[in-house]
Write a structure and sequence with these properties.
This protein is of the alpha/beta class and 251 residues long. Helices cover 46% and strands 15% of the residues.
Length: 251
């Protein structure tokens, strides 16, 4: 097992704190779930509304942060943004693999250099391959010659060679990534559903928490199934139980 991954099932559950509205609503979710999940994902919606203070608030509650801003720009800009992520003290962040090898390498180098010089925690750097809301037809309409499976393997391999710690990928792509990039390559998987079905779900390539972990996901990201449950903490606990079952079923 990768030494930068905590073994406990709860630590592998990332709650997507992608909420709009009042700042107090977000803080309430953090306080209710901090002892039931391993990390909070702060995405574009929450970060645009609340800025770095939401990260600071999560840290103040004893939580860890996955900064999900999917950096994608010229190499120098992404390297600078990655340094800012290090300064925020987050556990992991991501960038788009489609930004290319130079962009990825400069970001990884900047993160390692700043962490080493300042003794700040070294975050995991993840690459986003293909968004879980996209399927083969979507890629075809965008002009890609390969489907989601082929593009995912291509982008994951490119990112791995450029030095990232792992990828964010669909549950259905876990086995291909593991085979292509090795057992120590970290896999973070969104598009994982909870125990209770959620109305209006726009994820097209999904699996259950147990199935995703059994296949080799290191972390799973769950948002609406927890947030919209009558008792979010209980739903999170049920998902942690499914993660534990998936870990036990690994070969």
């Amino acid at each position: 097992m990768n030494t930068r991954i905590k073994g406990d099932a709860r630590e592998r559950l990332i709650f997507a704190l992608d909420v709009g509205g009042r700042y107090e609503e977000a803080l309430s979710l953090v306080r209710r779930l901090k002892d039931h999940v391993g990390m909070f994902k702060v995405g574009k919606e929450a970060f645009t509304l609340y800025g770095p203070r939401i990260v600071e608030a999560i840290h103040a509650e004893g939580g860890e942060v996955f900064l999900d801003l999917k950096f994608h720009d010229i190499p120098n800009t992404v390297a600078g943004a990655s340094e800012s992520a290090v300064k925020l003290g987050i556990r992991m962040f991501n960038l788009h693999a489609s930004g290319g090898t130079k962009m990825i390498k400069e970001a990884v180098s900047a993160v390692r250099k700043l962490s080493g010089e300042t003794a700040r925690p070294l975050p995991l750097v993840l690459a986003v391959t293909i968004l879980t809301s996209l399927n083969d037809h979507d890629l075809e309409t965008l002009g890609f010659r390969q489907g989601t499976a082929g593009m995912m393997v291509l982008l994951a391999g490119l990112a791995a060679k450029a030095g990232v710690d792992g990828v964010v990928c669909s549950p259905q792509d876990i086995s291909s990534v593991r085979q292509s990039c090795g057992r120590d390559f970290i896999i973070v998987t969104p598009g994982v559903r909870g125990v209770t079905p959620v109305a209006g779900d726009d994820q097209k390539r999904t699996l259950s928490p147990q199935e995703a972990v059994k296949l080799g996901a290191d972390f799973i990201v769950v948002g609406r199934p927890i947030r919209m449950a009558p008792e979010p903490a209980r739903e999170a606990d049920a998902i942690v139980g499914a993660i534990a079952a998936g870990l036990a079923m690994r070969g």
